[in-house]
Amino acid sequence: MLNDLLARNVVWSEQKNAEEPGYFARLATHQSPEFFWIGCSDSRVPANVVAGLDPGEVFVHRNVANIIHSTDMNMLSSLEFAVETLGVREVIVCGHYGCGGVKAAMEDLPHGLSDHWLEPIRRLARSYAVDLSQETDPEARRDRLCELNVIEGVRCVAETPIVQNAWKRKRELRIHGLIYGLKDGRLRNLDCTVGPGHFLSGVAL
Q1: Domains in the chain, number
Q2: Residue 164 has pLDDT above 90, yes or no
Q3: Most buried in the list 2, 112, 133, 193, measured by CB within 10 Å?
Q4: CA angle 88, 203, 159 (to 5 degrees)
Q5: Catalytic residue numbers?
Q6: Spatial distance between the Cα atoms of 51 and 127, rounded to a whole number of angstroms
Q7: Is residue 200 pLDDT above 90, yes or no?
Q8: Same domain for 26 and 55?
Q9: Which of 176, 183, 202 is nearest to 39 (CA)?
């Protein structure tokens, strides 16, 4: 119920003010997050909560299955604002095991508009069909595709003109791929970080 939500907000804000007097007054004056987080819309994976960060410490963009579409103006606008205005130095693409979007992409069932959005994951599954077939357990196969989707997302973010131009200006900007475990609440580094001096698709960045 909405009234319950509003009541919980009052309790939270009063508790926060009691713990840190002037907290909201300070937060209202500016934001200077270190991280830009591109994650899944899943309600179980709120960026600042799973990363142990307070409001103001992470700038967030979320969509179904944390997909990086090169024509997604919402994501691109958020990325540009994070890099050019907020000056973030760390971009995180974060997926999660048990992702409903990845599961839907692997099903031979109609999902309406979601089918158009999830097409990049289906293409990824076709590209890595041999590797994925090594996983005999369907859940493990889906989880591996969740990881591949994050790694592909890191590559796509790195190839945007926004990031490429930042690197040309010698910006110390790095892009990381993480995945979150719903069953244990842990973030895992997929070791696919790219930045100035790293190599991606055979080209020095």
Answers
A1: 2
A2: yes
A3: 193
A4: 40
A5: 40, 42, 44, 96, 99
A6: 31
A7: no
A8: no
A9: 176
